[in-house]
From TrEMBL:
One CC-aspect GO term: plasma membrane
SUPFAM superfamilies registered for this protein in UniProt: Transmembrane di-heme cytochromes
Cofactor: heme b
Membrane-crossing segments per the record: 14-36, 48-67, 88-110, 142-161
Keywords annotated in UniProt: Cell membrane, Electron transport, Heme, Iron, Membrane, Metal-binding, Transmembrane, Transmembrane helix, Transport
UniProt cross-references to InterPro entries, sorted A to Z: Cyt_b561_bac/Ni-Hgenase (IPR011577), Cytochrome_b561_oxidase (IPR052168), Di-haem_cyt_TM (IPR016174)
Record's protein name: Cytochrome b561
Annotated membrane topology: Multi-pass membrane protein
Family membership: Belongs to the cytochrome b561 family.
GO terms classed as biological process: respiratory electron transport chain
Keyword Ribosomal protein: no
Domain Cytochrome b561 bacterial/Ni-hydrogenase: 8-179
GO MF, any single term: heme binding
C-alpha cells in the first residue's frame, strides 16, 4: 500500500545528506585514529582532520535547526499508528540532541580541557569552551567515547528503520529524503 507523504524540501535534503556523509566519515576517521594509532595516525594527522570536519557539523547544525523550525516536514504515512509516529519523532529528536549536538560538543569540551586546538575545516580555530584542566581529561574523554558509541547504535537503528519503511512497509518515507524524489501529494 502506498502512502501520501510529501517530500522534504531540497534544502532539508541537502543538509541531511551533507551532514550524514560528514558524520559517517568522521566517525570512521575517529575510530581509525584511536584503534590504528601506530600505523595510520603516528603524527595525529587523522585526529586533526577528525576534529576539523566534525566541528563543521556544529555550524551546519545551526543552519539545519533554523531551517527545520521554519519549514514543516512531510506528514508520516497514514498507516503508522500514533505511537509509531511519536517514536519516530522522539528518535529524530534524540538524533539531533545526541548524535549532532552532544557528540561534537563533547569533543570540543575534551579538546578544550586537554588544551588542544580545533581548526574548523583546517582554517579557523574554535575558541575553547572550557579552561584547560588536566583533572577533567579522563571524564571528558569518557563522555565523548560514550556519546560516539551510543550515537552509532542510534544511527544504525535509524538507517535500519528507513530501510524497513522502504522494503517492508513500502511507503514513501525513504523516498521523501531521496535527492530526486518529488511527491505529487
Ligand atoms: C568538535 C568536534 C569533535 C572533536 C574536537 C573530537 C575530538 C576527538 C578526539 C581528540 C578523539 C581522540 C582521537 C585520538 O586519540 O587520536 C576522538 C575520538 C573519537 N571521536 Fe571525536 N571529536 C569530535 C566530534 C566527533 C563526532 C561528530 C563523531 C561522530 C560522528 C566523533 C566520533 C569519534 C569516535 C568514534 C572516536 C573514537 C572513540 C573511541 O576511542 O572508541 N567525534 N574525537
Ligand atoms: C545511509 C544513511 C541514512 C539514511 C538512509 C537516512 C534516511 C533518512 C530518512 C528516510 C529520513 C526521513 C524521515 C524518517 O526517518 O522518518 C531521515 C531523517 C533524519 N535523519 Fe537520516 N538517514 C541516514 C543517515 C543519517 C545520519 C548519519 C544522521 C545523523 C547523525 C541522520 C539524521 C537524521 C535526522 C535528525 C532526521 C530527521 C529529519 C527531520 O525531520 O528533521 N540521518 N533520514
Amino acid at each position: 500500500m502506498s502512502s501520501k507523504t510529501s517530500a522534504y524540501t531540497s534544502t532539508a535534503k541537502l543538509l541531511h545528506w551533507l551532514m550524514a556523509s560528514i558524520w559517517i566519515a568522521v566517525w570512521i576517521v575517529g575510530a581509525l585514529a584511536v584503534y590504528f594509532r601506530d600505523t595510520l595516525n603516528p603524527t595525529h594527522g587523522l585526529t586533526y582532520w577528525h576534529k576539523a570536519f566534525a566541528s563543521a557539523l556544529l555550524i551546519l547544525l545551526v543552519l539545519r535547526v533554523a531551517w527545520r523550525v521554519t519549514h514543516t516536514p512531510p506528514a508520516m504515512p497514514a498507516q503508522m499508528t500514533s505511537r509509531m509516529k511519536q517514536a519516530a519523532h522522539l528518535g529524530h529528536l534524540v538524533l539531533y540532541a545526541l548524535a549532532l549536538a552532544a557528540l561534537p560538543i563533547s569533543g570540543w569540551i575534551w579538546s578544550s580541557v586537554a588544551d588542544k586546538p580545533i581548526m574548523v575545516l583546517g582554517m579557523v580555530q574554535l575558541p575553547p569552551l572550557l579552561a584547560a584542566n588536566p583533572d577533567a581529561y579522563d571524564l571528558a574523554k569518557w563522555v565523548h567515547v560514550a556519546c560516539a558509541w551510543t550515537s552509532v547504535a542510534l544511527v544504525l537503528g535509524h538507517i535500519a528503520m528507513s530501510l524497513k519503511h522502504h522494503l517492508v512497509d513500502k511507503d514513501n518515507v525513504l523516498l521523501s529524503m531521496a535527492p530526486r524524489f518529488k511527491s505529487k501529494y
